[in-house]
Amino acid sequence: MVLYRRARVAGASYFFTLALTDRRQDLLTRHVDLLRECFRQAQLRRPFHIDAVVILPEHLHLVMSLPAGDQDYAARIGQLKVLFTRGLRAGGMAVATNSRREAGIWQPRYWEHVLRDERDFAAHVDYVHINPLKHGLVQRVVDWPWSSFHRYVREGLLTADWAGGDEERVSRGCE
User: Fold this and answer.
1) Domains of the chain
2) Beta-strand (E) ranges in 31-81?
3) What is the rounded CA–CA span in Å between residue 78 and residue 75?
4) How confident is the model over 42-53, as pLDDT tens digits?
5) Residues 19-35: pLDDT tens digits?
6) What are the Cα distances from residue 34, in Å, to 5, 39, 54, 68, 147?
């Protein structure tokens, strides 16, 4: 088995990708209100700041900042996955479990990257926001409803026509 080494930096900002086990599903967008509530509940239990997020049908990208002195992002990600799975079950969805009694909704692992500096942070926020366009889900970033992009527009950090024609530059930022 591969030994995963995860960077743990107290008070840092991180980029995550969480994916469903069955990448053909659309559970995240179909149950987006449940997922939003799970984020709220997870934040109440262990505070964190959502700097950027995009919810796609079968995966999500998240830029999260932790409080000073706290490096336990794994508990927050685990809590989010558990809350969503429990919510699906409470809503009547049959969720299969494996031999270790783990629910089969989420991939067991996730991608994480500690953001090194402001440039890295900005590149990953851009990557989050352009992702629906990258996957061909919309023609314009502004047309995807489940993204923090809309908050960035409201706050004047981005314009509604952001990424119009410059998608290649943005997608290279997080390679």
Assistant:
1) 13-172 (3.30.70.1290)
2) 49-55, 59-65
3) 5
4) 999 999 999 999
5) 999 888 999 999 999 99
6) 31, 9, 15, 29, 15
